[in-house]
Design goal:
By secondary structure, the chain is of the alpha/beta class. The chain is built from five helices and four strands. It has a four-stranded parallel β-sheet with strand order 2-1-3-4, with helices on both faces. α1 packs across α5 and α2 crosses α5.
Length: about 150
């Protein structure tokens, strides 16, 4: 029996790193079905994906249509939901503000690494490109971890 039914990438506002991670993850091969989403901790109104994020994803061959920022809600949290944050502070905020948030890790922590995925606000396009490369590597590790868990079941 698989451990998770849903994976939610969480960022501050769901317009940059989390949707980038979601798009990358959706392109990967997973042995089990997993609903992949992204959410923000502070989403005041539905926004599209950041233009620089979109440009980096398109330049790497990804389809980016139809993303609208969404707030992480209590009903998103569950025993069979894996939540991966970009920063340790975001993980702590989820633990402090949401009940039953058991499966919450930073992306790096989930694959037994350390460090945060740095915020991109105000950064040049080249920094968004570096973030993409970082997320691509981290998410490859997440895929390996999830597929190994699937094989152990």
């Amino acid at each position: 029996m698989k451990q998770y039914d849903r994976l939610i990438f969480v960022d501050s506002d769901d317009t940059t790193r989390a949707p980038m991670a979601k798009v990358i993850m959706k392109s990967k091969f997973l042995m089990g079905n997993l609903d992949i989403q992204s959410r923000g901790l502070v989403v005041l109104f539905p926004e599209p994906m950041n233009q620089k994020t979109e440009a980096v994803l398109i330049s790497n061959g990804y389809h980016t249509k139809d993303h609208t920022a969404a707030q992480l809600m209590q009903e998103d949290i569950g025993e069979r939901v894996l939540i991966l944050t970009m920063e340790d502070a975001q993980k702590a905020k989820i633990w402090g503000n949401y009940e039953n948030a058991a499966n919450v890790y930073t992306i790096a922590e989930f694959i037994k690494q350390s460090g945060d995925v740095p915020p991109l606000y105000g950064e040049p396009l080249t920094t968004y490109g570096k973030c993409y490369e970082n997320l691509e590597a981290l998410i490859s590790g997440v895929v390996i971890q999830l597929n190994e868990e699937e094989l152990r079941k």
